[in-house]
Amino acid sequence: MPQLQQKKKALRPRQKQAQQPGLEHRMDPQPESRVLQTVHQPKLAGQVVVISGGDSGIGRAVALAFAEQGAKTAILYLNERKDAEETVRLVKEAGSDAFSLSGDIGRESFCQRAIAKVIRQWGRLDIVINNAAEQHPQDSLEEITAVQLERTFRTNIFSYFFLTKAALPHLKSGSSIINTTSVTAYRGSASLIDYSSTKGAIVSFTRALAHSVIKRGIRVNAVAPGPVWTPLIPASFPKEKVETFGSDVPLGRAGQPNEIAPCYVFLASAEASYITGQVLHPNGGEIING
User: Fold this and answer.
1) Which domains are seen in the chain, by residue range?
2) Which contacts qualify for 134-141: CB closer than 8 Å, 24 or more apart?
3) Which residues are identified as catalytic?
4) Nearest-angstrom CA–CA distance, 131 and 240
């Protein structure tokens, strides 16, 4: 038996114009033309954000960019205490508030504890930035041990599930979740097979979660950076590769964290109110068709 077609909900009065391209002054209701935010208003005033891997690199740049837009920030990190303390200092210097919390983001119990502290501290949560990641280059699949595979997946994708799951009961309509994926999700990487796989999973997680929470008024998006100069690079590659890191993209260089952070500000702000389930690609000009 054919499925009955569901009647579409009327969103505006029926109307028709007889000429192209049409006249705006005759439309009912009028299209909304004014940008919701202006350069003179903080885009995230009074909001609270939690950032995994917020101690350095892209996470630190996002924390500072959010602070400049009026957001308070919880910085989650593993063991990079000095970097985390510096990020908190910089956020406070920018005129906002912050605290840092050390723990393994790949463990659900830590994610639950982190969100509980955010709520105790500020009584609300508006934005979740899933950003923590690790990578361990190997020349072949055979060299990726079960221990490495699980560790990479725990940090890079399990943590996204755990932190978001803990945060969701506190998020309200207008809240935003932003996930850090990577250009490797789209083109792969011969020496980072497990890392690339987790980044592909993040893209699917973003799209599926966006549909899951859309009726709650929560938007879910992602950012897929190309090569970016962060501590992950000298911690991952031999010094010869570090020396030329990023030189193979069309712009001829690696990006800086502060060139990536504006993507997160945009996606978290009211300016991106019609964007969910999408990925932004600050990657130096590489075309990935994703």
Assistant:
1) 42-280 (3.40.50.720)
2) 134/195, 134/232, 135/192, 135/195, 135/232, 135/236, 136/194, 136/195, 136/236, 137/191, 137/192, 137/236, 137/237, 138/191, 138/193, 139/191, 141/193
3) 195
4) 27
At 130 the three-state DSSP class reads strand
Cα(118)–Cα(166) distance, rounded to whole angstroms? Answer: 11
Instruction: Reduce the secondary structure of 184-202 to three states and give it as a string.
Output: HHHHCCCCCHHHHHHHHHH
**Could you give the C-alpha distances from 141 to 134, 151, 180, in angstroms and in order?**
17, 15, 24
- Structure-block tokens of residue 9: 């909900």
Confidence band (pLDDT; 50, 70, 90) for 37? Answer: low
**Residue 179 β-bridge partners:** 130, 222
pLDDT tens digits for range 54-89: 999 999 999 999 999 999 999 999 999 999 999 999
Q: Which residues of 195-228 are buried (b: 16+ CB within 10 A; e: fewer)?
A: bbbbbbbbbebbbebbeebeeeebbbbbbbbbbb
Instruction: For tokens 């208003």, name the residue.
Output: 41
Q: Which residues pair with 52 in a beta bridge?
A: 76
Distance CA 182, CA 206 (A): 13
The angle formed by the CA atoms of residues 23, 24 and 30, to the nearest 5 degrees, is: 150
